[in-house]
Amino acid sequence: MSQAASSAESFPDIVRWDASRLSSAIHARDVSCREVMSAYLAHIDRFNPRINAIVSRRDSDELIREADQCDLELDQGRSRGWLHGIPQAIKDLSDARGLPTSMGSPLFVGQSAGSDSLMAARLRQAGALFIGKTNTPEFGLGSHTFNEVHGATRNPWQPALSAGGSSGGAAAALACRLLPVADGSDMMGSLRNPAAFNNVFGLRPSFGRVPMLSAGDNFGQQLSTAGPMARSVSDLSRLLSLQAGAHSSVPLSITDDPTLLLPPFETSVAGTRIGWIGDWEGYLAMEEGVLPLCEKALNVFQTLGCEIAPVTPGIDPDSLWSAWLVLRQWAVAGNLSSLWQDSRCRDALKPEACWEIERGVALSAMQVFEANRTRSRWYACLLELFERYDYLALPSAQVFPFPVEQRWPSEINGRTMDTYHRWTEVVIPGSMSGCPVISLPAGFNDNGLPMGVQLIGRHRAERAMLALAGAYEAAATGWIDALPDPMMTQGVL
């Protein structure tokens, strides 16, 4: 039996459908919410022990009862929304009422959320049934999903390797069809790196598109944002539309109507201009094979009539990295320094967290100010580039998935990485821009490992970006719908 045939048999129709098709089938009463929940729970029980994407799993009988209630509501002519009766798991950095929010830290084991985060509340209101959480590295630090609470998430394509992070549990769950869509968040590529490692879509929205309530700073910190991950562009746009929308408690949130993000999209993308940054003239270390695979993916855009040209931004990339370090350390220290200052908690923090905090608390106000000035210069540089190009393209990652036991890649192609996250520097231009950035599946290398290519667009230009991604999805038929080998993903290691 071929791998494709084996995969088709091991991945039932219900879990193979994207969320848009699943929602249509539920509302047409072609399948019941009970059938959907039962199919997903059985599939999760079969495959999740191997990849460890979903954690804090809820009781099956309770979930079936909730699905039955959704069926009853449909019988009465009532629908909660697009996700009515559809299983969902929230990233374990975000609160979901009644579920633990460990954030991958031993310090928070056993603590359950008394209420939903804003994003979780919006998904629940749209009908999602929360079955558990998706795994993440401790406090989301690092693009490799492992922690002392739940262990490591493994890559569905090769379980001996990393699923990326910090939304690694979400991306692996999508790839293995344990969820139809998934939420994530992105400070340093956490919606893009795992998307690349798992052959799915991830979209970091314009800052303010998806508001995030904070118990502290609602003005200064503008690095992290929540966003959608999906296996199709239609699902990506629909989930983004649910997550988006201004909130009065988040003064910098975008006030645009979120329904404007919904399909259908324009089908012609001919004439779209894409500037290929690549490895930034050798500045970014790249594992062998990454650039050719991404360039091959860009050829798909050429078949659609897009124009591709090499470009080098007019800013010193190392100055951008230095500014990023300051702003990230400032943010991490602001969030976690109270734990670090408590000697009883400090020993429970992973070394990377302590390193960020120690450097963050030593920063001066002028260092933060200068870092923000550099960030502003980068945005001004982008505005000039967007006069010549509609999008800027880079690889979504600098390495292919690496051994799951490895904390982080310490060298790339003979070049030493001087921090635990330097190997993901390619995502920094997008993170520092405040603009929307999408990671598209770019295909697989000769060893069967996935990669992605990211596009940076103009601020608030998500709709045009989704239209371009949809055209790419329709043309890139050789890899986007691929399924992992069930013989690799089934069972417990």
Automatic annotation (TrEMBL):
Gene3D superfamilies cross-referenced by the UniProt entry: Amidase signature (AS) domain (3.90.1300.10)
Molecular function per GO: catalytic activity
Phylogenetic classification of the source organism: Bacteria, Pseudomonadati, Pseudomonadota, Gammaproteobacteria, Oceanospirillales
Protein name: Amidase
InterPro entries: Amidase, Amidase_dom, AS_sf
